[in-house]
Design goal:
Length: 447
């Protein structure tokens, strides 16, 4: 019976044999004997395991890979670039070694710009270019010194944005890789991104966003939205907010389906982007976003969060089991749409939805303001529902508590219970939960 020790010895023997084969292939590639494309293909298979690929992670291995990655032989070039990308992914030390000078990026740029148009249509070269630079930005970050290559990089990346928006590439994976690279550049080298993503490029990205929405390519939509969220404020005016609002409605539909939590978590960057566009101050965008996401007084036939408008559905997210990141993104956006004013925020979403956000951010609203809200606007300050509709449902002689349906009362009690649990866990407040105390003391009906 084979023991675990025997298996380990076999595994180590195989790794040593593979490592020796890697060294042998590097020798052949160095003196250029044999077919470089076949050798690089075999090298790619062997070096998917970091332990077996150790001979590759040397100065010599890097030099050999660079020579064949950007050679005139197209097949060998593509295979060698795949090996290079694998090595950059698996070994942080190798990645730092590869990007400590401008040699790799300079060679990649020159190679890409020298390719004939028919080679670029497949997108294979652009994909590998973006993957290699993406790994460099992900692992080396702001240590990359690319300033001397800005003109060439800007030219190449602008052309790629045009290709992506025009649907020139055969695979959407090329577009996804480009967007991931642009996002990393916006984080680590924003001066470069500002030159690449000008007004025209923003328009192209919006076109890409719209076409991706129509083709139901959720991954591309997410990448574009993440990139747009990282653009400077002066670029927000060039983004078509109506496209984002349409995507929001579609995303809410998906989020409300069974198993839609993952989709819901992807909503946060979209909400953050809408907030940035609103705060940028373009009046037409501000008005359009507010009119779509805030529930007007004359539409509050039910408590806020229970109807089917976009604003109600966003508030329903806050009352449900959404992640804290998504809940915070919803409330941050609605607070911004309320001109960052606590009283206006309560007026727009109801005190029941607002109280957790207000307490967490150290904001207060007086009892007098709540009473004025009911008197002046004719709505229940807690639920946001029209008082006239409440009276119609319960009868004119009912008290405010009685005017709430049993379902509404249970919902408000549950909301407060969950709210106190969240606030105590985050350390925002530290006092007894009155709902729990009432339950334990048998006074629940008094609240």
């Amino acid at each position: 019976m084979e023991t675990s020790l025997d298996k380990n010895q076999v595994g180590q023997s195989e790794a040593i044999a593979s490592s020796m084969e890697v060294g042998s292939i590097l020798d052949e590639l160095e003196i250029e004997t044999g077919d470089p494309a076949l050798l690089c293909c075999r090298l790619k298979e062997l070096t998917r395991d970091k332990l077996k690929a150790q001979p590759l992670y040397t100065d010599r291995g890097l030099s050999i890979l660079l020579r064949h990655s950007y050679s005139q032989s197209r097949n060998a070039s593509l295979e060698a670039q795949r090996c290079l990308a694998n090595a950059l992914l698996l070994s942080d030390e190798f990645c730092l070694k590869a990007f400590q000078s401008s040699t790799l990026i300079d060679a990649a740029l020159n190679h890409l710009m020298s390719l004939p148009d028919e080679h670029l249509k497949s997108g294979e070269d652009e994909f590998l270019f973006c993957r290699i630079l993406f790994l460099g930005t992900a692992k080396c970050g702001s240590h990359l010194d690319l300033e001397i290559m800005f003109p060439a990089l800007v030219s190449v990346l602008k052309a790629m944005v045009d290709h992506a928006a025009s649907g020139d590439w055969q695979s959407s994976s090329v577009t996804a890789e480009l967007l991931k690279l642009l996002y990393n550049l916006s984080v680590y080298i924003p001066t470069l991104t500002r030159q690449v993503i000008d007004a025209e490029a923003v328009a192209r990205l919006t076109l890409l966003l719209e076409s991706s929405r129509q083709s139901q390519s959720a991954a591309i939509c997410s990448h574009v939205i993440n990139l747009m969220s990282n653009l400077p404020d002066n670029q927000m005016a060039f983004i078509r907010h109506e496209v984002l609002l349409s995507i929001l409605e579609i995303s809410l539909d998906d989020c409300e389906q069974p198993g839609g939590k993952l989709v819901g978590d992807q909503l946060a960057p979209l909400l953050t982007l809408l907030e940035k566009i609103h705060n940028a101050g373009l009046p037409s965008a501000r008005d359009a976003i507010c009119s779509r996401l805030l529930v007007p007084m004359d539409k509050r036939l039910r408590p806020l969060g229970l109807s089917t408008s976009v604003g109600d559905r966003l508030l329903a997210i806050c009352s449900g089991s959404a992640s804290s990141v998504l809940r915070e993104a919803v409330l941050d956006l609605l607070y911004a749409l309320s001109d960052s004013d606590a009283e206006q925020f309560v007026r727009n979403v109801g005190y029941g939805h607002a109280i957790g956000f207000l307490m967490q951010h150290g904001l207060t609203i007086s009892q007098e303001s709540l009473e004025n809200l009911q008197i002046n606007d004719g709505v229940n300050a807690i639920t946001g529902q029209s008082l006239a509709m409440q009276r119609a449902e319960k009868g004119p002689s009912a008290t405010e508590h009685e005017q709430m349906t049993e379902e509404d009362q249970e919902r408000e009690a549950e909301r407060l219970f969950v709210l106190f649990q969240r606030l105590r866990k985050t350390g925002v407040v530290d006092f007894p939960d009155p709902i729990r105390a009432a339950v334990e003391e048998g006074r629940f009906a008094e609240l």
